[in-house]
Specification:
alpha/beta, TIM Barrel, 9-stranded parallel sheet, two-stranded antiparallel ribbon, 12 helices, binds 2-acetamido-2-deoxy-beta-D-glucopyranose
């Protein structure tokens, strides 16, 4: 009897013990599952909120990142692939070593320095990039750029472009980089259109020729931006070619007008009528220095839309402007970022209408200080101090997203 009793008791205690252990084990398992679950949530959450951590982490689920980081393709951001450094560009820096440009007034030339900058510490910008004086030829840099642009909410890059073998004075040709740029944009489900620069001997005829070349070379790529099924070309300083020449050439090349949408640059509201009679499809203002031209004066934008009437006006917004490290005499054009308020004001002045195209000057025009690309605080010496953003390197990436999705 006693033995049976103790045996039963022992079994009971064993059972209770077993159940207790099971409960504790389940609890621990639950906790650990819960922790990893929460970790995943906050991780993916942070990418949708575009925090720095989402940038620093390897993205293990790209589809999720893209899904949780929406973009608007009607926001076109100007992108410059002209930077070079010794590691990727045959031992040389490009653009970071930009010259200090001579004063346009001959009498004043000698008042200002003209020596080139000496990277990596001394660069042709008033800001210093988080990614350092990078090369646009580095696939890692391009990947990071596309991720940053995705995080900014802008869906389309307007890539600065010169014909094969040509470049500006401070750069070297980069048309050969376009396939990699398109592929990297595609990875992040971004689109690319083209910003045709004033290359040597540019004429209406050869602009049409090169637009057709771009359509043939890149038009079938899935990252190639299309608007109403057409290729999209911004023509910088289009007014350097006469309205009559544009008109004649557009007229005699009817085919290109069916395949491509051409956007000309305007300085004044009246220039719009000229663009219309030249055969352009839209106008843009480019300059981020508010008030630099009439067309870049944000308070004038609503009226300019009315003046352009028959063609859309595409205003260009920007976070500020400062180019005194490459144009030491141009302090007058400086526009302080005012801790983001300058940028906010330009957004506020955008003519209303959700699906309208808006341009952002710029992702990485570092010389003119219009970039939203992350910059870091850096003091090299007493003489070289770089400006930084008020809320850290990603300030303008976040602010752009916030403004795009609340405008
Ligand atoms: C531009 O035109 C000039 C004069 O016709 C010519 O010498 C030069 O080679 C041309 N440059 C280019 C890049 O085509
Ligand atoms: C750089 O210099 C500025 C102005 O002298 C100063 O306010 C800032 O704290 C310095 N930053 C660093 C990182 O040394």
């Amino acid at each position: 009897m006693w033995q049976v009793y103790t045996r039963r008791r022992r079994i009971r205690w064993l059972a209770i013990g077993f159940i207790l252990i099971l409960i504790v084990w389940c609890f621990i398992l639950y906790k650990s599952l819960n922790i990893t679950y929460e970790k995943d949530i906050s991780h993916s959450h942070s990418s949708s909120l575009t925090s720095v951590s989402s940038f620093l982490y390897e993205i293990d689920n790209l589809d999720l990142f893209i899904k949780q980081t929406p973009v608007k393709y009607n926001y076109h951001i100007f992108y410059y692939p002209w930077y070079g450094n010794p590691e990727y560009d045959a031992g040389q820096y490009f653009h970071w070593n930009h010259r200090r440009l001579a004063h346009w007034n001959r009498e004043k030339v000698s008042n200002y320095p003209q020596n080139p900058h000496e990277p990596p510490d001394d660069i042709g910008s008033n800001f210093y990039p988080l990614l350092g004086p990078y090369s646009s030829r580095s696939p890692t840099i391009l990947d990071k750029h596309m991720r940053m642009i995705r995080m900014s909410g802008a869906g389309t890059l307007s890539v600065s472009w010169y014909p094969p073998g040509m470049a500006d004075d401070a750069g070297h040709p980069w048309n050969d980089l376009m396939p990699l740029l398109l592929d990297t944009a595609e990875k992040y489900k971004l689109k690319i259109c083209f910003h045709i620069e004033p290359y040597q001997n540019r004429t209406a005829d050869n602009v049409i020729y090169w637009s057709d070349y771009i359509l043939r070379q890149y038009g079938s790529h899935s990252a190639f931006y299309r608007y109403k099924e057409k290729g999209f070309f911004y023509i910088y300083d289009s007014y350097r070619i006469s309205a009559d020449e544009w008109y004649q050439k557009f007229l005699s090349n009817n085919k290109i007008k069916q395949q491509a949408f051409f956007v000309g640059l305007i300085l004044k509201s009246n220039d719009c009528q000229q663009l219309v009679s030249s055969g352009f499809d839209a106008a843009y203002s480019y300059f981020a220095a508010n008030g630099f031209t009439e067309a870049s004066t944000s308070q004038r934008w609503s009226s300019i839309v009315g003046i352009c009437k028959s063609i859309p006006f595409i205003p260009s917004i920007g976070p500020g402007y400062i180019d005194t490290n490459i144009r030491p005499w141009n302090g007058e054009t400086t526009r302080s970022r005012q801790n983001g308020n300058y940028y906010k004001q330009m957004f506020k002045d955008l003519p209303k209408g959700n699906d309208k195209i808006v341009t952002i000057t710029s992702f990485n025009e570092w010389h003119e200080g219009t970039q939203i690309e992350p910059a870091i605080e850096k003091n090299v010496s007493k003489n070289i101090i770089y400006e930084s953003y008020h809320q850290g390197p990603f300030t303008y990436i976040y602010l752009t997203r916030e403004l795009i999705f609340t405008t």
